[in-house]
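Q: I'm building a small set of examples for a reading group on sequence design. Run inverse folding on the following structure and report the sequence directly after it, with nothing in between.
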């Protein structure tokens, strides 16, 4: 059975609608249902000069596979016309609605996975919806308190203990319970979904030099170390906490299945420096498969043929592979 993916282009003024059109040009071993405004995609296809035939999705598995130039569409109307590059607060609720429809359809098993384009977190909040990111939104919809944001590129996977919270709150959010849950979800998914027989997980410290023996912060010794020792006693191949400024070098990474970073900007700049445009964002710990692009809304690129489709292609291919692996 061909995987059936829900694709949410995200912010209508950003590159997400362009990416939907660009992805439709390819021959995938899957069917893709864009959950979006159909006129928006048609308009963006015209701007890009690419062919696009939208096939209304009737809520059942397509009888005929989609062909290059085609895309299934579940129409969700915009609240206001979208102009490439110009955010409009009137469409904030529209973006959230597309994510809700995708989430509901995955929770019921209608779709096999969600692939998301980028959203603009600021404009959604300005529209009156408290929103910090897809990861937290989908976790909330699925009633999961702990999910893991993991970004992956060739030769490096980075998982985060905390995601979209202000830096000022990070230290308090690093609890033994949270660190243990994140490492455990990561470990189990590396085995079950990514074919790692015995994952080797390296954990960053929180403070400079992993706390320098307690002289530069206590969390590394008091919170992170005991969790790692406990998991080691349970047989897990996990080590750290390592100073984050020296951990990301080939000597250590060569044998690592994944690195656990304590916060967003500790791990993701390294990952994106290594593989921006060739990386995928995967949410672990959800009851369904969700992948996403490694970049944001790129408002300055919307409507441009210069958009790099690499991460979106990888997000779709990763979702397809994960669906197929889950059926083995
Ligand atoms: N998956 C998601 O929904 C994500 C959403 N965001 C959101 O995106 C918004 C803008 O964030 P920024 O920090 O400006 O990051 P950004 O990724 O949108 O842009 C950073 C730079 O990369 C370029 N760029 C990004 N994607 C590109 C592509 N596919 N092809 C060519 N160039 C590309 C942009 O033109 C810009 O110069 C924020 O509201 C942020 O929250 C950011 C990251 C991920
Ligand atoms: N920097 C990654 C990012 O912001 C994507 O987060 P999410 O929207 O996938 O939760």
């Amino acid at each position: 059975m061909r995987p059936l993916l829900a694709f949410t282009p995200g912010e209508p003024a950003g590159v997400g609608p362009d990416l939907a059109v660009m992805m439709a040009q390819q021959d995938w071993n899957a069917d893709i249902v864009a959950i979006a405004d159909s006129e928006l995609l048609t308009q963006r296809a015209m701007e890009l000069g690419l062919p696009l035939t939208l096939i209304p999705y009737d809520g059942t598995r397509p009888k005929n596979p989609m062909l290059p130039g085609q895309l299934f569409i579940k129409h969700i109307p915009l609240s206001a016309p979208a102009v490439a590059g110009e955010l409009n607060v009137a469409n904030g609720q529209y973006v959230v609605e597309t994510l809700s429809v995708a989430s509901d359809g995955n929770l019921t098993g209608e779709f096999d996975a969600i692939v998301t384009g980028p959203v603009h977190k600021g404009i959604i909040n300005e529209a009156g919806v408290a929103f910090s990111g897809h990861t937290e939104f989908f976790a909330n919809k699925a009633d999961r308190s702990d999910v893991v944001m993991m970004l992956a590129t060739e030769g490096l996977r980075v998982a985060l203990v905390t995601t979209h919270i202000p830096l000022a709150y990070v230290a308090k959010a690093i609890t033994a319970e949270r660190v243990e849950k994140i490492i455990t979800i990561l470990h189990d998914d590396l085995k079950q979904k990514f074919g790692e027989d015995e994952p080797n997980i390296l954990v960053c410290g929180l403070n400079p030099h992993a706390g320098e023996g307690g002289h530069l912060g206590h969390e590394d010794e008091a919170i992170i170390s005991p969790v790692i020792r406990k998991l080691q006693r349970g047989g897990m191949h996990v080590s750290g906490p390592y100073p984050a400024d020296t951990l990301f070098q080939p000597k250590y990474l060569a044998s690592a299945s994944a690195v656990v970073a304590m916060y967003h900007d500790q791990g993701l700049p390294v990952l994106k420096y290594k593989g921006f445009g060739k990386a995928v964002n995967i949410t672990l710990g959800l009851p369904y498969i969700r992948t996403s692009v490694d970049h944001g809304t790129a408002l300055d690129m919307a409507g441009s043929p210069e958009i790099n489709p690499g991460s979106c292609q990888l997000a779709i291919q990763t979702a397809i592979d994960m669906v197929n692996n889950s059926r083995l």
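The chain has a mean pLDDT of 97.
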